[in-house]
Write a structure and sequence with these properties.
This protein has 14 helices and twelve strands. The chain is α+β, with helices and mostly antiparallel strands and 349 residues long. A hairpin with a 4-residue loop joins strand 9 and strand 10. Helices cover 46% and strands 12% of the residues. It binds 6-diazenyl-5-OXO-L-norleucine. The site of 6-diazenyl-5-OXO-L-norleucine has 13 residues, from loops.
């Protein structure tokens, strides 16, 4: 008979399984300190490691289709983590204000959900399908059924701006700015030189505005929406501020530093789902495959990744790849997520 001192096989197996799981948990950085979050020491060491490991990577190039962006020093590199409890860990150039660019897009989609008290406003009026094309693809805007793209490519982001409830163009921008400031917990300012530079060269975005207009998929004056979108993209944020914005999502919509409720928690999973499927444009599949975290990139070099319930991880580095995604920021976030085992699909270990 298969019995050891009164224990049958299935009971022994259960005990062995519990022991293996416990050992795995103790070996993981997530087991440190309060057993659900890594210790201050682990997180601070990780951002420093990630910075040191990738600071000499020179792949990619500063975006120059917005001429002023090419003037940002390309060697800047910052890495930041802000937890859902509001703890901040940083390394490198985390106080340099860069333009938020497309990292702004999910936040404006969130503002629209909040204003209309509906996540489906985005689903119905814009769409949530990844295009598999570049962020500014006119072909995607024109050919995807019903011009249904998603709020994270340029056309969908312009449509999201057009949905913001406002009395005037100034008010529309003020609504967006006010929302971003609540997410960051600090006053923000537009980097005017980048705004002017993009406003003078954004003919492609104006084309998106008109395609949306002739397809009944824009909800304010199209050129007004394009201009407010351009200002939105030119809002300056530091890596630290961006990490607080992301941590507000990680914390269910409540800013973990100021404790201000900013967005209803029911909209956060919708925002994160769109970030997971479309946050990296034609590299979204690759990002899900390698990092497994909802995240958003911008041609200013910023990337924010969100670990729901736990933290935001941010990288800032101006050199971007062909898809418009910051090379060092991607590497730093992937490294940190890998070390912490925060890939939402599991680590496979
Ligand atoms: O509309 C544009 O082209 C820019 N303001 C934003 C593009 C962007 O950030 C693409 N992302 N990686």
């Amino acid at each position: 008979m298969n019995r050891i001192r009164g224990w049958n096989t299935s009971r022994l197996l259960l005990v062995a399984m519990v022991a293996v799981l416990a050992a795995a948990f103790v070996a993981s950085p997530l087991a440190a300190a309060d057993k659900s979050m890594p210790s201050d020491k682990v997180l601070q060491a990780l951002v420093q490691d990630a910075h040191a490991k990738f600071k000499d990577v020179k792949e990619g190039a500063s975006a120059d289709y917005i001429p002023e962006l090419a003037k940002v020093p390309p060697d800047l590199f910052g890495v930041a983590i802000v937890t859902a409890e509001g703890k901040i860990y940083t390394a490198g150039d985390v106080d340099y204000a860069f333009t938020i660019q497309s990292v702004s897009k999910p936040f404006t989609a969130g503002l629209v959900m909040q204003q209309y008290a509906s996540a489906d406003i985005i689903l119905d009026k814009i769409g949530v399908e990844p295009t598999g094309q570049k962020f500014n693809s006119l072909m995607a805007t024109q050919t995807i059924p019903q011009v249904s793209v998603n709020p994270l490519v340029n056309s969908g982001a312009i449509a999201a701006v057009s949905l913001v409830k406002a009395k005037s163009a100034e008010d529309r921008f003020a609504q967006i700015m006010g929302f971003f400031e609540k997410l960051a917990g600090e006053k923000l300012t537009v980097i005017e030189d980048v705004y002017k530079s993009e406003a003078a060269t954004n003919q492609r975005n104006r084309a998106h505005g008109y395609i949306l207009f002739v397809s009944d998929r824009i909800y304010s004056d199209p050129m007004e929406a394009v201009d407010v979108y351009t200002r939105q993209c030119s809002i300056g944020v530091t890596a630290k501020q961006l990490a607080v914005m992301g941590a507000t999502l990680a914390n269910g919509g409540v800013n973990p530093i100021t404790k201000t409720p900013v967005i209803d928690k029911k909209y956060v999973p919708k925002m994160l789902a769109i970030m997971m499927t479309a946050g990296f444009y034609n590299e979204s599949g690759l990002w899900a495959y390698t990092a497994g975290l909802p995240a958003k990139t911008g041609v200013g070099g910023g990337i924010v990744a969100v670990v729901p319930g736990k933290m935001a991880i941010v990288g800032f580095s101006p050199r971007v790849n062909d898809a418009g995604n910051s090379v060092r920021s991607m590497k730093a976030i992937e490294y940190i997520s890998d070390q912490l085992g925060t890939n939402l699909f599991g680590s496979g270990k």
